[in-house]
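Work Package 4 report. The design task specified in the project plan requires that, given a folded chain encoded as structure tokens, an amino acid be chosen for each position. We show below one input record used in the internal validation round.
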């Protein structure tokens, strides 16, 4: 395998008979979910957390994996680089409708995430949000040592990689000094729209997210200037037409150009400099800058962990959805196999079969019987329902 990481098959023996596999899921380090059980990104608690299973990724597939494991009595911890659960659904298109979830003719992406979080509540999975997995070691006894950049340590009997297309990173403004104001005055996603009411805004981008927020915040913000690098947009035609109407009405402004710099006074961002498409420069006053250039997935260190890859996806078998390393499973968009379709529904199916395989992996001597939530007293007890 290309890259600097060692293949698992050729691993080096480290202290205590463990084999070291290193990797990095790039992402911010902060927690921001109040109504789920989270382990703060503050760091290690003085020792490793013993876990039946650790799920890397809190998107729909990862969340449903926690549910399927819970039905089988398997406790899990969920680690995600994002500060909130939901993966691509929450990060890329929270307000977009989804039409292919069984029994739900239409479901918003964030609504789906909320429903999954509600569904797994009885099993009390522990979330570690805003944390990146930086180290994975395979012990001689087949268990796994994991560590996050925040210092959280795990000893897990099984690992499920449900990392979607990898770690999603926003495409940033790309001007000197912008990183200093990130999440303070320069933002790559909107967490609370009311924070921008009454503020002077400069909004970059030509896709749906940029246009949606331009339209939504016009009339609520003190001023809105929309900046895009070219005349063509990637947003819905109706949104583009509405933006142009608002410009014609004098309710907001539009500049065709790119960010060339930021202006700072007394430690605060006061504006941005834009290079217009004709080469001239424009200084725009701003209390906040919103930039929606899209996100790009990074497979990152997974590529160096020794898994058999095909087109940047982890190859798995279709009986267990196990990787080439016993005890490590991969579900959702991160995996591949003959006939693979990158659908949320496919991830749910994979999570169900992986759960049974994990149960067998944890206790090979015990037969895992198929039970149904409609009739199984054990499962109903785990769910906390009275049949």
């Amino acid at each position: 395998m290309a890259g600097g990481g060692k293949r698992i098959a050729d691993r080096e023996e480290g202290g205590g008979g463990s084999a070291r596999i290193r990797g990095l899921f790039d992402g911010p380090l902060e927690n921001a979910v109040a109504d789920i059980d989270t382990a703060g990104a503050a760091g290690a608690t003085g020792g490793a957390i013993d876990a039946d299973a650790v799920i890397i990724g809190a998107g729909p597939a990862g969340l449903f994996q926690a549910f399927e494991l819970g039905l089988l009595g398997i406790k899990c911890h969920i680690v995600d680089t994002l500060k909130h659960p939901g993966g691509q659904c929450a990060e890329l298109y929270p307000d977009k409708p989804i039409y292919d979830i069984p029994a739900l003719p239409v479901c918003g992406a964030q609504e789906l995430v909320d429903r999954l979080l509600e569904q797994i509540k009885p099993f009390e999975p522990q979330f570690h949000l805003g944390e990146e997995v930086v180290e994975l070691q395979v012990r001689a006894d087949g268990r796994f040592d994991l560590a996050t950049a925040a210092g959280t340590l795990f000893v897990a009997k099984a690992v499920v990689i449900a990392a979607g297309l990898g770690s999603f990173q926003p495409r940033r403004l790309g001007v000197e000094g912008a990183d200093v104001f990130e999440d303070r005055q320069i933002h790559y996603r909107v967490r609370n729209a009311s924070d921008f009411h009454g503020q002077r805004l400069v909004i970059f981008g030509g896709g749906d997210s940029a246009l949606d927020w331009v339209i939504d915040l016009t009339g609520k913000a003190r001023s809105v200037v929309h900046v895009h690098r070219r005349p063509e947009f990637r947003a819905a035609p109706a949104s583009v037409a509405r933006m142009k109407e608002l410009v014609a009405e004098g309710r907001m402004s539009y500049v065709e150009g790119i960010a060339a710099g930021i202006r700072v006074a007394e430690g605060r961002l006061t504006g941005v400099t834009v290079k217009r498409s004709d080469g001239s420069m424009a200084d725009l006053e701003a209390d906040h800058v919103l930039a929606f250039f899209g996100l790009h997935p990074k497979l990152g260190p997974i590529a160096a962990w020794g898994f058999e890859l095909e087109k940047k996806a982890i190859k798995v078998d279709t009986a267990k959805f196990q990787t080439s390393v016993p005890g490590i499973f991969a579900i959702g968009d991160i995996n591949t196999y003959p006939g693979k379709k990158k659908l949320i529904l496919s991830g749910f199916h994979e999570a169900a079969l992986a759960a049974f395989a994990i149960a067998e992996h944890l206790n090979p001597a015990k037969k895992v019987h198929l039970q149904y939530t409609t009739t199984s007293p054990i499962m109903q007890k785990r769910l906390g329902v009275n049949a």
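Residues 344-362 form the longest helix (19 residues). Validation will be extended to a larger panel in the next phase.
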